Amino acid sequence: xxxxxxxxxxxxxxxxxxxxxxxxxxxxxxxxxxxxxxxxxxxxxxxxxxxxxxxxxxxxxxxxxxxxxxxxxxxxxxxxxxxxxxxxxxxxxxxxxxxxxxxxxxxxxxxxxxxxxxxxxxxxxxxxxxxxxxxxxxxxxxxxxxxxxxxxxxxxxxxxxxxx
Length: 164
Ligand SMILES: [Zn+2]
Hints:
By secondary structure, the protein is α/β, with parallel strands linked by helices. It has helices spanning about 10-15, 30-40, 85-95, 115-120, and strands at about 25-30, 50-55, 60-70, 100-110, 130-135, 140-145, 155-160.
């Protein structure tokens, strides 16, 4: 697996909380596979999308995976900017359905499944952030993250595969 030097820099290490979160990321295997395939199809560019589901004390329960365009064409290899129109359309569609947008996934082409300082800047509290590492076009790792109480760093969240 590739790990560019910057992932070992103090700036990048500061983004990671030593403590893992208590909450769990619950997702069916076929939906995990959709994220992996979508990340592979977009390689070598970064892809992104939304997670639809519900959030309770135990964690996130994912019902649906919704790809959204990455508007950052200039640096599409290492940055993503989720299309706000895509976000709004899905948010509107979900009103009254009992499920909502509860996270954002994105890929890291030829980089580890660890969040960057840029990821922290754009992270929202309460959202789950799975990152798919794609090396040479193959999804090799997926890790899920969420910002801690002070929103100063990402905590790792256990991914639990559930029946679909
Ligand atoms: Zn990232």
